[in-house]
Backbone:
């Protein structure tokens, strides 16, 4: 996954499709995408509705698809890729390597674990002593304008966000970057404050929308 340094004047309105069987998740993701500039967000609860919405009106700019839906989620990913959809974000509660690889082979551009799945990932020994993590407030900071997001994150924070997009837990990301899990958590806390959301899927959606990752 490469890092793009998009210029603010390239940010434009976009369209999106959200496919999730949980109504609160659909509502939250749809609201976030509209705050990021989406002019048309279609949110559906199953693959039948998704195929009607996705393949009937031509490619949209972004699709957020929950792979835990019953049915052929990977087939839908492949169909969207073949139809020319530019950004496909897969969300899943499965953290095994097979599921991750299958999603990318099918066409996903990013793979994000649900909060429960990320929390259940096994911890691994940290190669460094943990650093003190700043307190995280319960209420996230207001979402900043999209055109300024690309300038707010440090290079290290972008690296952490890339690994989150690839489905890495805090511990696994720390091993990859030679950081402690608590240091990764600290980076994520700062990213959450800067992007205005602490949800991993929302973080990746913001980063993909603004061109930080693709």
Residues:
């Amino acid at each position: 996954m490469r890092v793009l340094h998009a210029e603010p004047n390239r940010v434009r309105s976009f369209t999106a499709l959200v496919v999730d069987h949980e109504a609160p998740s659909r509502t939250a993701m749809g609201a976030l995408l509209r705050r990021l500039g989406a002019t048309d967000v279609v949110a559906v609860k199953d693959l039948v509705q998704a195929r009607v919405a996705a393949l009937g009106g031509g490619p949209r700019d972004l699709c957020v698809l929950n792979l835990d839906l019953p049915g052929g989620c990977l087939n839908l990913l492949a169909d969207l890729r073949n139809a020319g959809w530019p950004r496909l974000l897969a969300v899943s509660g499965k953290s095994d390597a097979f599921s991750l690889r299958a999603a990318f082979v099918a066409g996903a551009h990013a793979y994000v674990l649900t909060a429960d799945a990320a929390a259940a990932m096994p911890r691994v020994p940290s190669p460094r002593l943990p650093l003190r993590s700043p307190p995280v407030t319960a209420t996230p900071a207001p979402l900043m304008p999209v055109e300024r997001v690309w300038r707010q994150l440090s290079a290290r924070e972008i690296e952490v966000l890339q690994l989150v997009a690839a489905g890495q837990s805090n511990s696994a990301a720390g091993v990859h970057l030679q950081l402690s899990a608590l240091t990764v958590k600290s980076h994520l806390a700062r990213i959450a404050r800067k992007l205005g959301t602490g949800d991993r899927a929302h973080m990746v959606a913001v980063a993909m929308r603004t061109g930080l990752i693709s």
